[in-house]
Amino acid sequence: MGNTSTDPVVKRCLARHDVDLDDHDPRETFGWEKDAARGAFEDEIAIVSDLQKRLFAEERTALLVVLQAMDAGGKDGTIRSVLTGVNPAGVDVNSFGVPSDEERKHDYLWRVHAHAPERGLIGIFNRSHYEDVLVVRVKGLVPQKVWKKRYSHIRDFERMLGDEGTHIVKIFLNVSSAEQRERLQDRVDDPDERWKFRLGDLDDRALWEDYMKAFRDAMRETTTDDAPWYVVPADRKWVRNLVVAKILHHHLEAIDPRYPPAEEGLEGVVVP
Ligand code: ADP
Question: What is the pLDDT of residues 227-241, one digit of tens each?
């Protein structure tokens, strides 16, 4: 399903099994102009919103969108922009931070499985089970022999979700190191944004190359036809938003949700 988009930009962003981040420019614009892109974005959102109504009414399948990025990569902004105009009752957003004491008592998929979207909903994972092969790998929180096995667990887990009616799309917001530096600096400098900044963000930034390797390997190991990864250029927010909207459009269209048939005999009924 994931490989069938006729949109050339969606196709270009699709991660292949040998994905190389050097082939994906975070500043890519696909030849778009900012003003025209705004109109295109609004058109895409209208389509996504219409398809979401059908998904919700049909209650047959769910769409799970996994969002991963470095700090300040734009996960929150993407959710805010792309889901504007979509009925909030049909969207289920979950964020996954450092596991709680309760979560640590279980396997790493336990907490995410509990939040997999119910049929009819678009579920958004703001961070996800991928942290368990990203931060956990880079910071050495478990031994290599433990995290290495997780790629195959994740493939199996996602296949099971797919078989049971959850379509999965995974998006890596590809922000450059230079852009991240600017955004983090802006957070420090702006009193209204400072709450978002943690000194620990600098530790992660210092490990940039290790994170890029971990992202690359996670995508290589787990991109499948039914649960594909996309690498979205994320330095320019207007490009990022339009690309993500196009990806959602493509996947919702592939699900092809339809309104349930109306009850027999409603033709001509007059409500008293
Ligand atoms: P965000 O940065 O997404 O806005 P937070 O500031 O709460 O949200 O950061 C969440 C933090 O939790 C990140 O540093 C992330 O690496 C960390 N985290 C998420 N999942 C795990 C995990 N399974 N193990 C360890 N750390 C994790």
Answer: 999 999 999 999 999
Judge whether 271 lies within some domain. no
Quote the CA–CA distance of 111 and 134 in Å, as a whole number.
17
Ligand 1 touching residue 136 (CB < 6 A): yes
| pTM for the full predicted model | 0.97
Contacts of 165 (CB under 8 A, 6+ apart): 60, 61, 62, 119
- For residue 3, pLDDT beyond 50: no
Number of domain units in the chain: 1
Instruction: State if residue 199 touches ligand 1 by the CB under 6 angstroms criterion.
Output: no
Range of the domain at 139: 8-174+209-255
Q: Which amino acid is at 206?
A: A
Answer yes or no: is the C-beta of 77 below 6 A from any ligand 1 atom: no
Residue 272 covered by a domain:
no
Ligand 1 mutation target, pool 131, 193, 202, most atoms within 8 A of CB: 131
Q: Report the atom number in ligand 1 closest to the C-alpha of 198.
A: 6
